[in-house]
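Appendix B. Chain record.
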Amino acid sequence: MTHSSPSPARRPAYSLQIGASMLLTAALLVAAGATVTRLGAEEARVIPAPAVDEQPRPEAKEDVAVLAGGCFWGVQGVFQHMKGVTNAVSGYAGGKKETARYQLVGTGSTGHAEAVRITYDPREISYGRILQVYFSVAHDPTELNRQGPDIGTQYRSAIFPTSAEQAKIAKAYIAQLNQARVFDAAIVTKIESGKGFYPAEAYHQDFLVLNPAYPYIVVHDLPKIESLKRLFPELHRAEPVLVSAQPSN
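Structure tokens predicted for this chain:
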């Protein structure tokens, strides 16, 4: 897989909100092998498991979930470190195939959201548990059309069900969490059925793993991996599953 640096226009609001000294300090901590605390990432929290989940299917070996929660670098990284996940691909969902390109999606006019397609083994992990990590660790579901410093509909919180059962589970879980007042505000996550997923450019794949000292990753995304490990130790795995390690089609 070829890998190149992201566009200079990447995360334009980022440099305005995070001081250079903080970035340097965080990068040095990572380089030294230190654990990074939540300097700028959304706050993770303990939330109840879903009361409604998919029914066990012993014959099923693979299923797919598509989730959007801000910048796909961090969301992909979280699920790459989750047991039961066999692949996690960064991409775009919500718009047309013709506009599924980074420079176009970044305008906020395509209908796409930065999303991640998660392939998982339903014998090891359920769709409901994936949603639990999504709401708890991967992003803040109460932020409307933004995540942290990233603003626009392309960074919205959205679930793209691949089946009627997934849509039912997601709807029930959102209602459950809102009723329990788990968050300080109402969940704004939208359920968008019938939308396709299109993989992002190669340089976006495995970005967190390949660029652990990249300032945005240090401040906003590595803390999510730490939160997964802390809040869901039974689901965390140290060695991530990588797109670059998948067999070619």
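Further analysis of this model is presented in Appendix C.
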